[in-house]
Write a structure and sequence with these properties.
By secondary structure, the protein is α+β, with helices and mostly antiparallel strands. It contains 4 helices and 4 strands.
């Protein structure tokens, strides 16, 4: 018989007992049509990524089902008619997961306590150690101003524009010495 996983999201204003009753109703429907619910996991009230039918939270339930396709079709029809169900997703799987799902195993562990001092950690590892000193900036040297060699003001080419043209620099074909014989603005004699 085919195997399925079904996740159901119920409205946040229903009680946990009503969510359990919904799971039992699904199990009874599947059993009537020749299938069986192998696992019924309540994941709790969780925040939704976006509002669904004016709800920001929902009760999540995971069902592992072994049933013929007509039983799944009838189960999905009943879920569509139920006003307490916001969304559901049924997926055919090769084999059913034994033991608690990944959601429940992550829910049981408190990440904040295991991070240690500084609160670091996460999926990229623990404490990275002390931060290296920032003075000197290593091998970068003095770049002198904005932009560097791709334009902007300053850089190791001098002037405005770097090696892309513009004003300044040490290349005569780029206009570095244009107007060198003129007096600077504001200092005109007269």
């Amino acid at each position: 018989m085919p195997l399925y996983e079904c996740v159901v999201i119920a409205r946040s204003d229903v009680t946990t007992q009503q969510v359990d009753a919904l799971g039992e109703q699904i199990a009874a429907t599947v059993a009537e049509l020749g299938g069986a619910v192998k696992k019924n996991e309540y994941w709790g009230l969780r925040s939704l990524a976006y509002r669904i039918k004016k709800n920001r939270k929902g009760h999540y339930v995971l069902l592992n089902i072994e049933a013929p396709p007509p039983a799944i079709t009838e189960m999905e029809r009943l879920l569509r008619l139920n006003e307490d169900v916001l969304r559901f997703l049924t997926v055919a799987v090769e084999e059913l997961e034994e033991g608690p799902s990944a959601i429940l195993t992550n829910k049981g562990r408190d990440d904040r306590e295991s991070r240690g001092p500084g609160g670091g950690g996460g999926r990229f590892g623990g404490d990275r150690g002390p931060r290296p000193p920032r003075s000197g900036f290593g091998d970068r040297g003095d770049r002198g101003g904005f932009g560097g060699d791709r334009g902007g003001f300053g850089g190791d080419r001098g002037g405005f524009g770097g090696d892309r043209g513009g004003f300044g620099g040490d290349r005569p074909d780029r206009g570095a010495d244009r107007g060198a014989d003129r007096a600077p603005r504001g200092e005109m004699g007269g």
